[in-house]
Design goal:
mainly alpha; 420 residues; Growth Hormone, Chain: A
Amino acid sequence: LQPSISHDINKHFNCRGKHKNQLFRDTAAIHWKATTLLICLYGIVKEFRPATPFLTPYLVSSFKNFTDTELYSEIYPFWTYSYLIALIPIFFLTDILRYKTIIVLEAACLCATWALLVWGTNIRQMQLMQIVFGIASAAEIAYYSYMYAVVDQKHYKRITSYIRCAALVGKFLAFALAQLLISFRYGSYLLLNQISFASVCIILIIAVMLPPVSSKVIANKVQTADNRKMERNDLQKSGTEDNDDPVECEKSRANVLAVDSDILAYFVSIWNHFQIFRTNKVVLKWSLWWALTSCGIYQVYNYVQTLWATMQKDGEDTKNGLTECVNTMIGALIAFLVQYMHVNWVKCGEVALFVTSSIAALLVFALSQTTDIWIAYVLYVTLAAIYHMLMTAASELWIGIRMEYVSGSCSADSSHDRRC
């Protein structure tokens, strides 16, 4: 009788443990799905800024009365330098402050940007607008990385697709509305900026509502990655030095993990991740390409409206919104199709980067020389399509490398025919 009672008690507690585990898994699944919905809503509303494709026409119109020289020489350059100065500090602060703070910063800076656009009247205020917008642009990294700290790595590919599509949907709706209002004269450039201001005020509320990422979650991710890396190092070391003292190995492991604070652990992890550039030339090449290409395309985005303005006749119906709308549609289509393209970007990467970068350079040169606005629109959309395709490919490559690196299947001496 006594063994039977003991068996029933153990069975009861085992069942309770299973129910608790299942409840925990269900709660975690609901949490990340709800958070995904909220961050995607943030992305859609954040990009719903119909004033964007008509910023230059707005600033030179009767609403603001700035000259082309003032725009080119005294206003627009402030975004470039502001973005450059803010990017590196925000890159580190995003993880240290656990994402949400930087997302709120981005939303607040966007609110300040459009408040200055709507009510600002002089060059100093427009310069301040560009500085604040540069900070917001640098803080955008938090939006794209927030979900990676919340969800398990098995959902990384889905999350990447969701947040990219959310941003593209917001842009598409905004640009379509902008072109509709301007072409049919339902509204003015000022109305577009007022709508944009209302939109960015809404995202400030959404940003505050986002659940914070606890330091414990980040610490666990960092600890897991570092533990797996040290296990691989131990296995490699044991294969060549079988006489190592296990006590010394454990002492060395403890010394590596014995950090004084979460911030120190973060910088140790960052340093470990930077080692991949030394051992993996594929990552190094694509990272350099990403950095240089982003610099170039951002300059195109920043000044292309100014270039278009020189080709547009006074009183002519501008198609900036339509062009950006088509650009967004093509970007979304490419981002969707690249996932189903069975291309080994590791083996074909060098050729792809050389060919596409050469084509992009020719497109930029042609864009600078043409005097026809429609040719300029086509060249711009083609250039942006190439950028979208390779950025999506780089993201796919990064996700594969990241998952293999964290799971421990990517070694330092991986050959180029593997995705690691």
